[in-house]
Specification:
Blueprint lengths: L1 H10 L6 E5 L6 H17 L3 E5 L6 H8 L7 E6 L1 H8 L11 E16 L8 H10 L4 E5 L5 H13 L3 E5 L3 H9 L5 E5 H9 L4 E5 L24 E9 L4 H15 L2 H9 L3 E2 L4 H22 L5
Parallel strand pairs: 1-2, 1-3, 5-6, 5-7
Antiparallel strand pairs: 3-9, 4-7, 4-8, 4-9, 4-10
Length: 308
């Protein structure tokens, strides 16, 4: 009977507007991605998809809202890459990223860029490494916050490259970028969408990309992995539902999302912001989450990193 009830529930889905929780402020990458797909997803599902921004505390409370929501497909969660690192950084996070969510699909993915203020006087990543290793005082890196991927990418770099660094945490990528542009800090590792306009305007120097290989976004710029093969860090956005959401509903959402991501206007819009559309199965996204959680969790534990 339970299987029959689930099948009936899935057949009639959705029966009311769908709430897509975004655990960040309006205007961030996750919010922009969610709002970009919401209209086409609404049309495909026959119900409105309403964006619900639940910012604060690194996105933990907003994420927990979905973990505890009814698993009926009417509450979804759009997440940024910090989703997998938050439970390791916030030791008392009230949810489990693997156990408490049903993956739907990875949506978009893109490299971060290693950028510096031109006043630092380095033009290549090799020069940057040499300066980082030879200076008496560490380079200052801006981050978008203590629990963000921009902070963790710097931590991973100094962990692997064995260089020291002074981290200056800001309340968001915008303020961090502004201080880098003003020369108040010297370097930053951030999503291409955030810093690429300043690179193109000649206000920042890009030295490397954090993806495994080079990126067409910045032709001729090397990957950090060419110097440190074990280094890779990417920004990404994905969609999840609460655990125990019926498989038929997860499959329906996955199919519609993949179709929306495949639209030429969606691909072009995300590419202009420094991201490629990905898609894939729920199982592939689940594997991605587990691998990323294990990778960042080990580094965070080894380094003793916290959000404080």
């Amino acid at each position: 009977m339970a299987h029959f009830a689930t099948a009936v529930q899935a057949q009639g889905y959705p029966t009311r507007p769908i709430r897509m929780v975004v655990p960040t402020s309006p205007g961030g990458v996750t919010d922009v991605a969610a709002r970009a797909i919401a209209p086409a997803l609404s049309q495909a599902l026959g119900q409105s998809v309403v964006i619900d921004n639940r910012a604060g505390a690194g996105g933990v409370p907003g994420t927990d809202t979905v973990a505890k929501a009814a698993p009926d497909g009417h509450t979804l969660l759009a997440v940024f890459d910090s989703f997998v690192s938050n439970p390791h950084v916030f030791r008392n996070a009230p949810y489990d990223t693997i156990r408490d969510f049903a993956p739907i699909s990875l949506m978009i993915r893109g490299p971060q860029l290693v950028v510096v203020h031109p006043g630092l006087g380095v033009r290549t990543f090799g020069e940057f490494i040499a300066q980082a290793k030879s200076r008496r005082t560490p380079l200052n890196y801006a981050t978008a916050g203590a629990a963000t991927s921009s902070r963790l990418s710097v931590e991973l770099f100094r962990y692997i490259a064995k260089v020291d660094a002074t981290l200056v945490h800001y309340k968001g990528g915008g303020p961090a970028l502004n201080d880098l542009l003003g020369g108040h800090v010297e370097a930053m590792i951030a999503s291409a969408g955030l810093v690429l306009p300043s690179v193109k305007a000649g206000r920042l120097t890009v030295l490397a990309v954090t993806s495994k290989g080079r990126s067409a976004l910045v032709p001729g710029v090397p990957a950090v992995s060419e110097f440190y093969p074990q280094f890779e860090a990417q920004s990404w956005v994905g969609l999840l539902a609460p655990a125990a959401t019926p498989r038929n509903i997860v499959r329906r959402l996955n199919a519609e999302l993949i179709r929306v991501l495949g639209l030429p206007e969606a691909r072009e819009r995300f590419l202009s912001q420094g991201y490629e559309t990905v898609g894939g199965t729920p199982e592939q996204f689940g594997d991605w989450i587990r691998a990323e959680s294990a990778k960042w969790g080990k580094m965070i534990r080894d380094q003793g990193i916290t959000a404080e």
